[in-house]
Amino acid sequence: MQIFKLRSSDEFIKLGQVIKAAGWVESGVDAKFVIQDGLVEVNGETDTRRGRKIVAGDLITFDGKELKVVK
C-alpha cells in the first residue's frame, strides 16, 4: 500500500490529481478516462468524478494497487 501525504496547507486533493501524483497514470487525460470508466474506487465504492475531493483517511484503489491519503 502506498501512502500519499497531503501538503500541510491543503485540506484535500482531487481524485484525478492524486492518481496522477501516485504514478498510476501518465497524464491527467489518462486519469480522466480510468475514472470515467469506473476503474477507480474510493473507500470501497466506484467513483466516476475526477474532481472528487480526497481527504486524509481516504483509501483509493486502482488496478490492484492501494493508496492511503494522510495529513
Features:
7 strands, five-stranded mixed sheet, two-stranded antiparallel ribbon, 32% strand, S4_RNA-bd_sf, Ribosome-associated protein, 71 residues, 2 helices, Structural Genomics Hypothetical 15.5 Kd Protein In mrcA-pckA Intergenic Region, Chain A, alpha+beta
What order do the helices and strands come in, and which of them pair?
Elements: E1 2-5, E2 13-14, H1 15-21, H2 28-36, E3 40-42, E4 45-46, E5 53-54, E6 59-62, E7 65-70
Helix pairs in contact: 1-2
Protein name: Ribosome-associated protein
Organism: [Clostridium] aminophilum
Keywords: RNA-binding
Summarize the structure in short.
The chain is an alpha+beta fold. The chain is 23% helix and 32% strand.
